[in-house]
Amino acid sequence: MSKNDSNKSNEIDQYTRNVLQNGLSRRSFLTRAAMGTGAVAFTGLTGSMATASTDDCVKTAKSSDGGATLEFMPKPKPISDRDIVSTQTFDVVVVGAGASGVPAALSAAENGAKVAVLQKQAIVVSQGNTGSGIDLANSDKAAVEAMVNRLMGDSAHRCHPELVREWAYNSGEAVSWVIDRAKKGGAQIVDQGTKVQHGIHGVTEHKLNFVTSYCGPKPYTTGDGMRDLAKVAEKAGVKFFFNMPAQQLVQDDSGKVIGVIAQDRDGKYHKYMAKKGVILSSGDYQNNEAMCNFFIPDLKNFERKQMDRTGDGFSMAYWAGGVIEPIGHTKMLHDFDAGPASMCDMPFLAVNRKGERFVNETVAMSLMNNYLRDEENAGHYSQVFDANYMEQAANWPGKLYSPEQMKVYMPEDPSPKIGVYESQINTYSANTLEELAVKLECDPKTFVANVKRYNELCKTGKDDDFGKPSSKMLPVVKAPFYGIHRRMRISTLCSGMLVDKNHQALDADGNKIGGLFVIGNLGGGFYGGVDYPLTVFGLSLGRCYTFGYLAGKYVAKL
Asked: How far is 510 from 536, CA to CA, in rounded Å?
C-alpha cells in the first residue's frame, strides 16, 4: 500500500470502512463473484445463482458495461436526449416528497435555492405522528452524550457515531422549525415536550429535555402535516411535480450527478437539471419483495403498512456508484393502534395466535417480531390482564389507560372512536377466559391452560418458564378480563446508502459522489441493530426532519 493510500485508509472511520468492505456496490459485487463468494451471498441475482460456478457468477453479474445487475435493481435503460420532451434547470432537485424530502426542499428554498421536488405519487406521502429532537437549551451536554451512547447501544454499536451526534445536536432546532413552518400551513401540530418520552428514564442522571412534535389527533397524521408543510414550501417558491417518478440520475463524464430523468403518466420523459445537487429521499423498499428477501429475509411473513415503497432511490444511487449497507438491515415493526401505545411495553402476559405464552414479557414490543416470524403467527400476539391491572401495574413504566379510557380502542363498545384508527383498534374485554380467547382468535383450551400455568407461576413468585421478574408477574384471575391483540406489521426499513456527515453519498472507494445526497430511510449509518429502537419516542421522524433540514441548507449553500 502506498503512503497516500495508507493515509486515506486512516482517515476513514470504522463504520464507513466496514460498509465499504461488506456493503453492496457494483464493484464489490463483481469482486465477490469473481472470488467465488457471490454464489452463496448474492441469492438476489437474476438467474439461478445458488448453484452457479464462479465463471457463471461473473458472466451473470456483469451487465454490458461490466457492472452488476441484481433482479431487484435492474440497470437503467439508456434514455436519449431525443426522448426527453422537456428540460428544466434548478439549483436543487429533491426526489421524494415525504418527512425528509419536504423539509429538505423548504430548507433549501429558505437558503436561497431554486428547488424542484419530484414525487412518485399524486400527493405528499408520510406516516406516523411523532417526531422528536433534543432541546439543547434545556439539556446538559453530559446528558446529550449519554443519550448518544444509549442510541448507539440500541444499534449494537454498529451505527455511525457522527450521524447520531448530527441528530442529537441539531434535532431540537430542526423539529422546532418544522413545527413552526407546518403551523403556518395550517397543520395540526404541537410540541408535547419531554413528558411523553417514557423510554428515556434511566438514560442519564443529568438534565435532558425534548422537543416532541405531534401531528394529530389520529386519524390526522404526519402525512397531513407534511402536506401542510408543502403548502409553505410552495409559497417559498418550491415547485412540486406529482405523478412524476424519477427513473435515473444524470451524471457527467466525471461521475458527478447533475440531474434526474423522470417519467410522467403518459410515459414521456422529463429532465430536471440540478446546479448544486440532487437529494434522494424516496423512502425504503418494503414493497419490493425480492429486495426484502435479499436484505432482510426475516420479513417474509409480515404484512406491510405502506405502499409503493419499491426501493427506486436505492437503485438510482447504486447505479450512480453508491454503496448499500451490508445485509441485515434495521427494520421497524410495531402496533400502536390496537390498544393504548403507552401500554405496549408493559409486561402483561403475552400469548401467540395459538394462545400459548411464548416469551419473557419484559421484551420490548419493538423486538416481539423476532418471536413471531413464522407463517402461522405472522406478527400477531395478545397482551392479557385482568380487572386489577390499574392497581397492580400502577408503578410500571408507561401510562395506564383506565377501563373507561380503553373503550375507544374496543370495536365492540359503541362509544365514539375519537383519536384512533377505527379500522385498527383491537382491544377486548370478557367475563370469562374462554370468551376472551375467542375474541383474541386463540384456541380457548390452549389459552386457558396457559393462563392457568402463568397464574401458578405468579403464585410462587418464580417464572420457571421464561425468567420474568416477580415484580412484573401479575396473575389473570379477576373478571372482567382484557386482551389487546397486536399485529406487528412493517412500518419502515431503516438502513440505506453510505453517506458522510453532510449526507453526501460515498462510492466504493469512500470518495464523495459529486452532486448526490441521500436522506430519510434511504440514508444509512444512523441505525445498526436488528430492530428500530423505541428509547426515544418519535426518533424516526425526528431524524427525517433533522437530516432533511440540514441537507437542504447544506446543498443550497454549495
From this structure: 31
